[in-house]
């Protein structure tokens, strides 16, 4: 899951808080009724992969490219 954080926020050090945010953000969203299960690989049908800005929204073209790379890596893993 991509969580945008201001690049220069003196109150938040993203490098030391990564693990905390990894649990905090989904828990906070769940408290509002949102249950997120982000996946690049579909459970059914087998062999369906997702890539693009809607899979990892908010980061623009770099995130779209990274999403495609992750999907390609999953395809290669599943083929081997």
Radius of gyration: 15 Å
Mean pLDDT: 77
Give me the secondary-structure category.
Answer: mainly alpha
Order of helices and strands: HH
Query: What overall form do the CA principal axes indicate?
Result: extended
Distance between the termini: 26 Å
* Number of structural units classed as domains: 2
The percentage helix is 40-55%
Number of alpha- plus pi-helical segments? 2
- Tell me the β content: under 5%
Main pleated sheet: none
**How many runs of DSSP E, i.e. beta strands?**
0
Low-confidence stretches at least 5 residues in length (pLDDT < 50)?
none
Model description:
The model has no long low-confidence stretch (mean pLDDT 77). This protein has helices at residues 18-31, 61-79. The chain is extended. The chain has 2 domains: 1-37, no CATH class; 40-80, no CATH class. 41% of the residues lie in helices and 0% in strands. The chain has 80 residues and is mainly α. The two termini are 26 Å apart.
